[in-house]
Amino acid sequence: MMFGAVLGGRLADRIGRRTVILSSVVFYSLFSLAAAASPNVEWLGVFRILTGIGLQAMTGVLLVFVSEMYPHLRGRYQAILLGLGCIGVSLVAGISSLLVPLGPGMWRWVIGVGALGVVGCILGLRILPESVRWQVDNGRTVQAERLVNRLEAKARLKIGGALPDPVVAQETAPGVLGDLFTRRYLGRLVVLSICMICFILLNYGFNGWVATLLVERGLPNAEALRIAFSISLASVPGAFLAYPVIDRFERRAVGAVSMVVVALSLLIFAFAPNATVMVASGFVLTARKDAQCSAVQVQWVTPLWSFSMYSSATN
What we know:
Elements: H1 2-15, H2 17-36, H3 41-69, H4 74-99, H5 107-112, H6 117-127, H7 132-137, H8 141-159, H9 183-216, H10 221-232, H11 235-240, H12 243-246, H13 251-270, H14 275-310
Helix pairs in contact: 1-2, 1-3, 2-3, 2-6, 3-4, 3-14, 4-10, 4-14, 9-10, 9-14, 10-14, 13-14
């Protein structure tokens, strides 16, 4: 995934956000299907690595695409994006709780669900435009103006009148990757890197391994999967929880509060005396974790990502 993020960003800078997003979806869908058909554990590892490359290439570029196309409300739109994406977390957890107990080979069907991303790619070919900002930065002014005119025409029909005059943003000097390590950005880079490393560790460590950890604590496999599914249901409301506050309150405050709640929930979950407390703390943990992700990535991570990967400073 780390390699996919860097590769996806570089490719998106060269060939466009839309192309990388859609091609990455096809890439990880095909290798999800290949992983489901793996003949042995070695090939499973290879196919899962390739799946991770495609997945993160798509995710990183998609976040920047939203920031570029909806800069004034990027907090709310990224919260919506994260919330819809988290439906997949609950979906896979639910499928796992139903299929895995049926037999030793049913895990293949769970992994194969990832191949359904091709359906989204087909829809994206019809409705996903190229980023206006990328088109302007790459000399495609005519295409950018054509897209803006089409979007403005739809907006006029929606509001039933003329649009307000556009506000011309102050141009910023092009940035380079090395600027991230200057005094102005280095502190933010270090803090946010630590935050996102811990978030990824928690996200993939907790969500991906919670059922296994519960089995090791003595719970039957079927019950552990049901608890994991119950906890995963918090992902969707947790992400949407950021929607009403992300553009109203200071994002670092929202992120800090969420981090404290996540830390307390982790401690309660680790020493929970029974399944009820375990599910309750896990539910709160998952909900606040995704709200925290929205706040942190919208305020700083996406702008810094844009700055470093696409060589242009984002306000």
